[in-house]
Amino acid sequence: MTAAERFAQARPRLLRLAYSELGDLGEAEDVVQEAWLRLERVDAETIENLDGWLTTVVARLALDRLRSARARREMYVGPWLPEPVVSEDPADRVTLDESVSYALLTVLEQLSPAERTAFVLHEVFDVPFGDVAEVVGRTPEAVRQLASRARRHVQRERPRFAASRDEHDRAVRAFAQAVTEGDLGDLVAVLDPDVVWTSDGGGHATAARKPLFGSSRVARAWAALSRKSAQEPIETELNGRLGLVLPSGDGQRAALLFVVSDGRITRIDAIRNPEKLRRI
């Protein structure tokens, strides 16, 4: 098998790795393309473990981009949310499986670049600590501590009772029907009392600058929005789970991703920034 063929075989995994580190599919694709260009400049026959070499290169490139992206995201207008991924091609599902769920990506945003890289490489991709240390430029023991801190944070922030796919789908469809009908009571019923609704407009689309908390406030806001729009939500699989896309008469679409626990929606992420919706 040629180096090009082996790279093509590894590409879905590498893209998933870069996307997990960055939360931005466009940047992840750039990172994977740069890894290919670097491979073209070396003699692949001299690389003993090509998969390991590619993993290290992609992880390092993604870490560099993540560090520079942090400064840009601090200047971002309103909350910054990861770019959602939708795919109708089963061959691409490797980038969408639930080990890198959207809920996890939002939690990883709270970690330092080094912690996020250590967690993704070791916890998601089973990369040994010694190899992770080579990527982040620290000792294996330091990397072990980074991954441990990251793991504790993720466990603390993840839903305590993750919903099954059927439970998730039922809640999302109940929400879609309540929004379509503008039924305040049904909206409150499908929302967890402590639900959080976060919107990402990036200064390019109308969106709340701060998250909205609580089932009553979130339900009233959605009921008000439903009265202004006759467009019905469209079911779309986003990051491996059922989500919704809201068409808009003004061209400002929204992609909605949900976290469901114990039959109710605990988190709604609404991406309205058109730069993050170009693939949807």
Automatic annotation (TrEMBL):
SUPFAM superfamilies: NTF2-like, Sigma2 domain of RNA polymerase sigma factors, Sigma3 and sigma4 domains of RNA polymerase sigma factors. Pfam families: Sigma70_r2, Sigma70_r4_2. One of its GO terms (biological process) is DNA-templated transcription initiation. The keyword Transcription regulation applies. Residues 9-70 form the RNA polymerase sigma-70 region domain. Keywords: Sigma factor, Transcription, Transcription regulation. Residues 103-153 form the RNA polymerase sigma factor 70 region 4 type domain. Interacts transiently with the RNA polymerase catalytic core formed by RpoA, RpoB, RpoC and RpoZ (2 alpha, 1 beta, 1 beta' and 1 omega subunit) to form the RNA polymerase holoenzyme that can initiate transcription. Belongs to the sigma-70 factor family. ECF subfamily. This is RNA polymerase, sigma-24 subunit, ECF subfamily.
